[in-house]
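Why should sequence recovery work at all? Because a backbone constrains its sequence more than one might expect. Tight turns favour small or flexible residues, buried strands favour hydrophobic ones, and helices have their own preferences. The token representation captures these environments compactly. In the example below, the structure is given first.
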């Protein structure tokens, strides 16, 4: 008696085939990692950042459709960028910008104003620019943080700003529908930005997180990129905030 065995390998369709993803902050870190994953899932990508040289290097690596060098915190520059898009797009991920730390009683008032409102103004400018450019069912994804869940001396501005962002994103989701709006609230992510902020303390912070986080490893850009792509492809998700911190916020 003989048995003939046959095997078949299912081929998974790319999750973002024929879609276009704009990455504001796409030349490094989470933005660049998301560009890599989006390309692997069949999307065209448009990279936006301040530094043209870094943009060119990132664009060559991932095969970007185009790039734009601008300050993503400049509402006029954002408006000009979106106005200049000749073809519809599907998703926008915003990772541009850095957190503001400082004691509420000691921080410069102008710096405090920017720390409290800068990210929200950027979100608003992106949402306004997206109208008529992002296809219905497409998405806007913003990066926030978990700093608002824990109050501590020195985190005053950061805690207040990140606490406001979920409500702001939810309100935008109602106003720009059927474009979807979601917020990613990240804890520590091992990126070049984190390295620049921590300096010589980076390795110690990594070791601490490996020892204390429930996942027993450090969250990296690829983890956040995977979440961002999921938010792009799942058209039932809007107006929500998604934590990704490896359980950091539960530590005492």
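From this structural description, the recovered sequence reads:
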């Amino acid at each position: 008696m003989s048995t003939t065995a046959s095997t078949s390998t299912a081929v998974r369709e790319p999750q973002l085939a024929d879609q276009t993803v704009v990455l504001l902050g796409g030349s490094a870190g989470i933005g660049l990692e998301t560009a890599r994953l989006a390309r692997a899932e069949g999307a065209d990508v448009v990279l936006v950042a301040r530094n043209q040289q870094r943009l060119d290097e990132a664009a060559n690596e991932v095969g970007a459709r185009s790039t734009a060098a601008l300050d993503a915190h400049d509402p006029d520059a954002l408006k000009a960028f979106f106005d200049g898009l000749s073809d519809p797009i599907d998703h926008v991920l915003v990772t541009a910008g850095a957190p503001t730390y400082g004691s509420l009683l000691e921080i410069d008032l102008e710096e405090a104003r920017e720390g409290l409102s800068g990210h929200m103004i950027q979100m608003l400018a992106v949402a306004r620019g997206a109208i008529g450019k992002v296809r219905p069912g497409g998405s806007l994804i913003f990066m926030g943080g978990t700093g608002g869940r824990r109050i501590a001396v020195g985190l005053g501005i950061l805690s207040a700003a990140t606490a406001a962002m979920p409500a702001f994103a939810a309100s935008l989701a109602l106003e720009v529908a059927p474009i979807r709006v979601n917020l990613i609230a990240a804890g520590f992510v091992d990126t070049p930005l984190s390295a620049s902020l921590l300096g010589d303390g980076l390795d110690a912070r990594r070791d601490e997180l490996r020892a204390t986080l429930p996942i027993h490893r450090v969250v990296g850009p690829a983890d956040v990129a995977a979440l961002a792509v999921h938010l792009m492809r799942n058209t039932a998700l809007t107006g929500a905030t998604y934590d990704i911190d490896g359980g950091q916020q539960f530590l005492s």
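A few observations help interpret the result. Helices lie at 29-40, 52-62, 75-83, 109-130, 156-176, 192-198, 202-212, 221-233.
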